[in-house]
Design goal:
By secondary structure, this protein is α+β, with helices and mostly antiparallel strands. Helix content is 60%, strand content 11%.
């Protein structure tokens, strides 16, 4: 094979490795195995997420309500008027945040979560107490391989 053709073939092999290696790593990464990942926690138990998973913070609704009720006067009528004004100024975004927060609590309850942090995969497997989502998923995948 001529030297110029040899260099060209070598360059294609290098390019092939540069493309194939990251693709293979992505295919065999823990995140690729998990089709549906839900992480349940609260603000006192931070987790290291990977991106793409659904994060439910059980105390999010309480934090939103605390924002709405911050520094209210003692007079109930004035307090009511202020909260109504705050709710109105928050608009659809505030309503969506509140609905999402309460839906998250409902979903965690329906999944049977008993402790936090919890990483749930495919609504079937759960790892409790692991704040690193990637490690929790890796443990679940290890279990899946051992018991197909």
């Amino acid at each position: 094979m001529p030297a110029s053709l040899s260099r060209l073939a070598s360059g294609w092999r290098t390019l092939g490795l540069a493309v194939a290696l990251p693709a293979a790593l992505a295919v065999f990464s823990p995140a690729a195995f998990a089709a549906d990942v839900v992480v349940v926690t609260d603000s006192r138990h931070p987790v290291k997420t990977m991106g793409g998973e659904r994060l439910i913070e059980l105390d999010e609704a309480h934090r939103i309500e605390a924002e709405l009720s911050a520094q209210l006067p003692a007079d109930p009528e004035q307090a009511t008027a202020i909260v109504k004004r705050r709710l109105g100024s928050g608009g659809a975004d505030l309503q969506r945040r509140l609905a999402s927060a309460y839906q998250g609590v409902t979903d965690a309850w329906s999944l049977g979560i008993t402790s936090i942090p919890a990483v749930v995969v495919d609504q079937r497997y759960v790892v409790y107490g692991e704040p690193d989502v990637a490690r929790a998923i890796a443990r679940i995948e290890q279990h899946r391989r051992a018991r197909p």
